[in-house]
Design goal:
Elements lengths: L1 H9 L7 E4 L4 E5 L12 E2 L5 E5 L7 E6 L11 H7 E2 L2 E10 L5 E6 L4 E2 L5 E2 L1 H9 L4 E7 L6 E7 L1 H10 L7 H5 L2 H15 L8 E6 L19 H7 L1 H8 L4 E9 L5 E9 L1 E2 L4 H7 L1
Parallel strand pairs: 12-13
Antiparallel strand pairs: 1-2, 2-3, 4-5, 5-7, 6-7, 7-8, 9-10, 11-12, 13-16, 14-15
Length: 288
């Protein structure tokens, strides 16, 4: 994560990020030694390296396409694959990205994994989720917004860390659900989400978030065994909560039963708060 990157640089380790593909003779972008941004992959290594963004949206997000004199000529004995990935001497990377204001390349995801808002703004849910999970207080998160007017996030606190933080700050609680509902915890996570938003372009920022009353669990089908979010399951299982977020409600009453691995059950009665971020005020209000 960015904090780890900055930590090593502060210790004098000259870390820099690079980006490339085997077909293009390895890396072809790199940070300049005096201009290192952990959220980007730098700039072209040479004047002969040409990079463009194909089919960009209104915010410049599209497919990264590259060419330079030392790139490959095609795939060995596979003209069909060569034809698919090479166009007029340009290599289609299959990666999605954009150039920031400093003209540095930002790589966010595979182009096929991007989602679009109702306005046609592209974003990578996984890219934003990973940024949020760099926070020690966030265990899992699901970024919403495909086909919607703005982005929102369902967040699961990292109980082991947040509970110690709560004890240190003399905040009483009984269970995960109780802790996740505390206003002090919402304030803590508010700062974390705002910090991530500050590293993202406006169209990719979280406008609203809420803290879920339970952890996402692979045994409930919400995650794969490798801890990847099953978006279809989340959208179906928490449809009422998601619709409430986008309908403009500030509080969502929950009365449900959860089942544990040992077969026991627990009734959950709580109220979820929907927090609107400063950056999302105008977008959310206009949509509602």
């Amino acid at each position: 994560g960015p904090d780890t990157f900055k930590f090593f640089r502060a210790m004098g380790v000259p870390l820099r990020t690079l980006y490339g593909q085997t077909e293009l003779l390895g890396a072809y972008t790199l940070h300049r030694h005096d201009d290192v941004d952990p959220d980007t992959t730098g700039v072209p290594m040479a004047d002969t390296v040409e990079i463009r963004i194909d089919d960009p949206d209104a915010n410049g997000v599209g497919e990264i396409v590259v060419r330079h004199p030392n790139m490959f000529l095609g795939y060995y004995k596979n003209p069909e694959a060569s034809k698919a990935d090479l166009r007029d001497g340009w290599m289609l990377s299959g990666d999605a990205g954009y150039f920031n204001k400093a003209k540095q390349l930002v790589v966010i995801d595979r182009i096929k994994d991007l989602a679009e808002t109702a306005q046609g703004d592209r974003f990578s849910p996984q890219y934003i989720e990973n940024k949020l999970k760099f926070s020690p207080y966030i265990a899992e998160t699901v970024v919403l917004g495909a086909g919607r007017d703005y982005l929102a996030a369902i967040i699961c606190i990292r109980y082991s860390i947040v509970s110690k933080w709560a004890e240190k700050n003399r905040i009483s609680f009984t269970t995960y659900t109780d802790l996740a509902s505390r206003s002090e915890v919402y304030a803590l996570l508010h700062k974390e989400v705002e910090g991530v938003n500050a590293t993202l372009p406006p169209a990719q920022r979280i406008a609203k978030f809420m803290l879920l009353y339970k952890e996402l669990d692979a045994d409930d089908g919400e995650l794969t065994r490798t801890r990847k979010v099953r978006r279809n399951v989340i959208n179906e299982k928490y449809a009422e909560i998601i619709n409430s977020i986008y309908s403009g409600r500030k509080d969502i009453d929950i009365d449900t039963v959860i089942r544990f691995q040992d077969g026991t059950t627990q009734r959950i009665q709580t109220t979820l708060q929907v927090i609107t971020l400063a950056d999302g005020d105008r977008t959310a209000e206009a949509a509602e």
